Design the sequence.
């Protein structure tokens, strides 16, 4: 079993490039099934979640190969609407294949991804979207079956913000007959990126980035060449690491416009931040201050995915930080592990209260989910002595060679095994 060994206490300095976005790549790859052509996704991160998605694509009949950071998907051959259950369950975002396969094949039956480390993750909003497009949807025995002789455009009023359901709604609508209006849409940059790809594939979609998205169905889509957007959560994680360890880091290929609330919280903590084009520089020389209250919200609010690493950065900040998690029910899995490192955190329901401590100490800890693992890394960099982090399979889902990135910034970090 691999372990990440970090010896804390060194400040970070230097420059690194931000990887392509995991949460951008996954829906884009699913969307490629809707085209009857060859798509190229540049800046595609090498992650285990991307690899699992590639396996799904191959299983349904696409030809996929990688050349450097470009992933080629050829969806021009016949597509079959089946994915092995184990593959479906291996990643949550497999649910995005629902509408792509339904639209392409007229039917689909998939195993539901099930509950997971972030608490229950229902699919009611995905089902609502597909039904609004005329699909017949049944759920039984952990499977979801959809059928539609031909999807037809309609009105999809999403009662709560969901990134995945918005993506499924768009993918279901782009080749449906007639027009669709999606209200209550998630506004995340990954949805804007999905729209950009679909448009270059010939789809008629507008409004992504706002809560109303309009789609006029087209008969066919062609393959397209697309550069995946920068990973705002990977960027936030490195910034949190630099805030925690101190020093000065420069991120290339970042998208500061998508990082607003994270940059603001880091500024409130006493970090100096500068943006120039796609370069973000953070330096932190003085002791950290607690940022006050941080509440996770759908975009453009403070992202739930940045909550764990920013919490870890706040552990040694002077004063009290209150973090309120409003998106997922169980996103404090990193807290018991941080307590082992000497943190002072109290949780009650959705709220975590963090009182700054003078020192953290290295410990043997385990990641229980992707961003929780990132929090352990951020804390380890500022801890005295050695921290050994287990559960790297979670981090491999979303971070490209984290140990190497940290070493490039001067940290003492090594992956063993
Ligand atoms: N929800 C429902 N019903 C649904 C769908 C969602 O109640 O049918 C609830 C969820 O249970 C959750 C909330 O709505 O409480 C938001 O979930 P959303 O659907 O927006 O999340 P997602 O699409 O499953 C994506 C990211 C997550 C990120 C969330 C929120 C991908 C592949 N995943 O998940 O990323 O946390 O949006 O921004 O895009 C991560 O990268 O670590 C990660 C978990």
Sequence:
């Amino acid at each position: 079993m691999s372990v990440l060994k970090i010896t804390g206490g060194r400040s970070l300095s230097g420059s690194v490039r931000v990887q392509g976005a995991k949460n951008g790549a996954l829906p884009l790859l699913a969307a490629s099934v809707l085209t009857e052509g060859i798509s190229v996704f540049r800046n595609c991160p090498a992650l285990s979640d991307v690899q699992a998605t590639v396996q799904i694509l191959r299983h349904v009949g696409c030809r996929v190969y990688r050349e450097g950071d470009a992933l080629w998907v050829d969806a021009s051959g016949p597509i079959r609407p089946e994915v092995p259950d184990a593959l479906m369950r291996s990643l949550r975002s497999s649910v995005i294949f629902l509408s792509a396969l339904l639209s392409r094949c007229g039917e689909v039956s998939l195993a539901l991804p099930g509950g997971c480390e972030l608490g229950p993750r229902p699919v009611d909003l995905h089902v609502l979207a597909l039904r609004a497009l005329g699909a017949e949807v049944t759920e039984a025995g952990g499977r979801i079956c959809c059928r539609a002789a031909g999807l037809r455009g309609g009105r999809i009023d999403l009662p709560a913000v969901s990134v995945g359901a918005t993506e499924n709604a768009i993918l279901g609508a782009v080749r449906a007959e007639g027009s669709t209006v999606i209200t209550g849409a998630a506004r995340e940059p990954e949805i804007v990126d999905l729209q950009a790809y679909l448009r270059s594939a010939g789809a008629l979609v507008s409004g992504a980035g706002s809560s109303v998205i309009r789609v006029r169905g087209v008969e066919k889509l062609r393959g397209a060449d697309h550069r995946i957007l920068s990973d705002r959560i990977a960027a936030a994680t490195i910034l949190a690491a630099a805030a925690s360890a101190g020093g000065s880091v420069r991120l290339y290929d970042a998208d500061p416009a998508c990082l607003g609330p994270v940059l603001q919280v880091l500024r409130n903590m006493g970090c100096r931040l500068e943006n120039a084009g796609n370069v973000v520089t953070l330096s932190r020389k003085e002791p950290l201050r607690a940022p006050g209250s941080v509440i996770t919200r759908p975009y453009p609010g403070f992202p739930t995915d940045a909550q764990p690493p920013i919490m870890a950065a706040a552990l040694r900040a002077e004063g009290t930080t209150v973090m309120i998690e409003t998106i997922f029910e169980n996103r404090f899995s990193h807290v018991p592990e941080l307590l082992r490192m000497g943190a002072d955190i109290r949780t009650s329901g959705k709220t975590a209260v963090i009182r700054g401590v003078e020192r953290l100490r290295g410990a043997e800890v385990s990641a229980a989910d992707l961003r929780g693992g990132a929090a352990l890394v951020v804390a380890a960099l500022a801890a005295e002595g050695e921290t050994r982090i287990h559960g790297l399979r979670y981090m491999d889902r979303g971070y490209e060679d984290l140990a190497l990135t940290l070493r490039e910034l001067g940290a003492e970090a090594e992956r063993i095994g």
Q: What stands out?
A: The chain has 14 helices and 25 strands. The radius of gyration is 21 Å.
